[in-house]
Amino acid sequence: MRWGGLGAALSLLCLLTLIVRCPKTDSADLKESCSTCKQITDNFAKGFERTAKKNFGGGNTAWEERKLSKYETSEIRLMEIVEGLCDSSFECNHMVEEHEDRLETWWFKSIKVCCPNGTFGPDCNACIGGSERPCHGNGVCNGDGTRTGDGRCSCNHGYQGALCLECVDGYFSEERNDTFSQCTECHPACEICTGPTSHHCKKCKPGWEQDKEEAACNDVDECSREPPPCKGDQYCLNTEGSYLCKVCDKACSGCRGEGPDHCLTCADGYSNEGGTCTDVDECELSESPCSLEHQQCVNSQGSYRCLCAAGFQDRDGVCVLPPVNGERSAGRSNGSVM
Ligand SMILES: *[C@@H]1O[C@H](CO)[C@@H](O)[C@H](O)[C@H]1NC(C)=O
Ligand SMILES: *[C@@H]1O[C@H](CO)[C@@H](O)[C@H](O)[C@H]1NC(C)=O
Ligand SMILES: *[C@@H]1O[C@H](CO)[C@@H](O)[C@H](O)[C@H]1NC(C)=O
């Protein structure tokens, strides 16, 4: 359990105790008992807070600091809290007395699961970097806040080392002293760097190359390579540090860019009209491709279809009138793709 949940857990313990222990209490008594109990739990939470920064002595010496964790879970602290639970109310003192054993069991059993934040292990030792800023604020201390763990730091992204003060490759040190470190991500051009721009690279990332004149890592234009990196029905798009292969427009058979105006040659069913590959309307050709009786030509992008004219049906590739006693006779037409 975490320290923060203590008040709530205690209330629950108290209420359960009341309900389980006093089944024959009549309702007026129960109500009074409840308010007494609530007062006790409130005061316990207050007492817990009051004693949070205390230790065995009065001062705050290093020796006492080390012993602080012992005080935190000690019987002395429990007693100090319990002393402040009731004023002179008989009922309150009676209730505390009655339940003291349970309170103690709970205190020593449950509380031993936890350590204060920033500390770990059986003795609640301070994490690396101190309990105020475990792992120097750049990582998570193993077992933090519990009686378990070995206190080792798991560093956040960008940091490394037992103390989480060093920067990983791809990050540079923005600020650094014995207790503080700020690592910042390199420019995308750099694999390793000493500062924020592409001029600060010590090594370029793949897809970037060292430019001697500019003393910087510049993007490689993969698209200008020979042979080109993309397939025949694709065009190449250079990006920062990489490139993309994008599918050509369907009007094209091979292309150097997006759209029907960047084709190398036009695909079947398209013809070059002033630099743009445009659909050929086969139905408008002097010789219509749908030459059977009652057929109708319908143009489509890159192709066309021969359908039966209105009122006719396709029967094995021939357009015929539907049977007279058919359900419906007009407005139907079967399609057949050529
Ligand atoms: C302890 O840490 C937990 C989780 O990181 C947090 O929710 C809680 O508020 C902290 N408690 C104190 C007293 O700082
Ligand atoms: C280290 O740097 C931090 C952040 O600038 C600063 O708060 C801290 O006082 C410094 N510590 C030392 C020992 O110089
Ligand atoms: C014509 O269309 C009808 C209804 O859609 C279908 O039952 C029939 O099989 C089609 N005929 C042919 C030759 O495709």
UniProtKB/TrEMBL annotation:
Stretches that traverse the bilayer: none
Places the protein is found: Endoplasmic reticulum
Residue ranges annotated for the EGF-like domain, each copy included: 123-165, 279-318
Superkingdom of origin: Eukaryota
GO BP of this protein: epithelial cell differentiation
Disulphide linkage map: 155-164
The keyword Signal is assigned to this record: yes
Signal sequence bounds: 1-27
Family annotation (Gene3D superfamilies): Hormone Receptor, Insulin-like Growth Factor Receptor 1, Chain A, domain 2 (2.10.220.10), Laminin (2.10.25.10)
Pfam families membership: DUF3456, EGF_CA
A GO cellular component annotation in the UniProt record: endoplasmic reticulum
InterPro entries: DUF3456, EGF, EGF-like_Ca-bd_dom, EGF-type_Asp/Asn_hydroxyl_site, EGF_Ca-bd_CS, Furin_repeat, Growth_fac_rcpt_cys_sf, LE_dom
One of the record's GO molecular function terms: calcium ion binding
Similarity comment text for this entry: Belongs to the CRELD family.
PANTHER family, A to Z: EGF-LIKE DOMAIN-CONTAINING PROTEIN, FIBRILLIN-RELATED
Protein name: Cysteine-rich with EGF-like domains 2
Organism: Scleropages formosus (Asian bonytongue)
Lineage: Eukaryota, Metazoa, Chordata, Craniata, Vertebrata
Gene: CRELD2
